[in-house]
Write a structure and sequence with these properties.
- Helix 1 packs across helix 3 and helix 4 crosses helix 8.
- The protein is an alpha/beta fold.
- The chain has eight helices and eight strands.
- The chain has a six-stranded mixed β-sheet with strand order 5-2-6-1-8-7, sandwiched between helices. Strands 3-4 form a two-stranded parallel ribbon.
């Protein structure tokens, strides 16, 4: 069975885990939390592993995390002390890492192995989606040039994993401008989100890829993403999705930002 590929929002810092007593998050984040919590059950079958690319790991040459992701990389700042004690003890998967490496090599894509902790673009959404940490995970970096076409090609090279029980996930944010938040951002963020969603869900996969490659020409693109690292995981998910139908399966407003998630297949 072929698994879909996903582009998911990973929230803001440890947003789902701000209550030291373990209570629910601020109401603003609860819809996103519910979306993430339902991801695995929404799939046609439970994946044997996850391959995830996060907006919080960039390397000059593509890298595959061949380790187990511990200790966690608490790469957020200024949050309550208990949020630096969180844990998500997932295992890595050497077999999936090796298979991904072979697929990339066959496509002529330069890459290398690495061993690092899970950044919060991994462990924060995965603590919600896979709370028991019982699905092995392999993390892929972004290439530091943030080239959309190159990242679509990376996704396309990895697409055979979908038929091998591996869920390919891009973890980022469809809107990510830390310089603006609140209701004044919402109308512009909404225009950007509508344009992005129209491009992502274009039924013609060739046109879809071309429109997303040219994402900077969409309305308010650089307002939505002054830096592109939180959007680039979408390119990997889209590339791995190939010609499959694309849908927007999450949309909400957080911090005044309109934020969407996408599914391919």
């Amino acid at each position: 069975m072929t698994l879909p590929t996903l582009f998911i929002p990973h929230g803001g810092g440890p947003c789902f885990f701000m209550d030291p007593a373990g209570g629910p998050p601020d109401p603003m984040w609860r819809t996103m939390q519910a979306y993430l919590a339902g991801l695995i059950d929404s799939l046609p079958e439970r994946p044997r592993a996850i391959l995830l690319v996060s907006g919080h790991w960039e390397t000059p040459e593509l890298a595959i995390n061949t380790g187990d992701g511990h200790p966690l990389d608490f790469d957020y700042f200024g949050f309550p002390p208990h949020t630096y004690q969180l844990d998500w003890p997932s295992r890595g998967s050497p077999a999936v890492a090796q298979r991904a490496s072979a697929l990339l090599a066959a496509a002529g894509i330069a890459h290398h192995g690495a061993d690092r902790g899970w950044d919060h673009g991994v462990f924060i959404p995965m603590m919600v989606a896979v709370p028991d940490a019982d699905i092995p995970l392999v993390q892929l970096s972004l290439r530091a040039d943030l080239d959309p076409v190159a990242h679509m090609a990376i996704g396309a090279a990895l697409a055979p994993l979908r038929d091998e029980g591996v869920l390919i996930v891009g973890s980022g944010m469809s809107f990510h401008n830390l310089r603006t938040r609140g209701p004044q951002a919402t109308p512009v963020a909404d225009e950007w989100d509508v344009a992005l969603t129209e491009a992502v869900t274009d039924p013609d996969p060739i046109a879809r890829a071309a429109r997303i490659a040219a994402w900077q020409t969409l309305p308010h693109a650089r307002f939505a993403h002054p830096e592109a690292e939180h959007l680039l995981p979408l390119m990997v998910a889209l590339g791995a999705g190939g010609a499959d139908t694309a849908v927007c399966d999450y949309r909400d407003v957080v911090l005044g930002w309109v934020v969407s998630g996408y599914r391919f297949g």
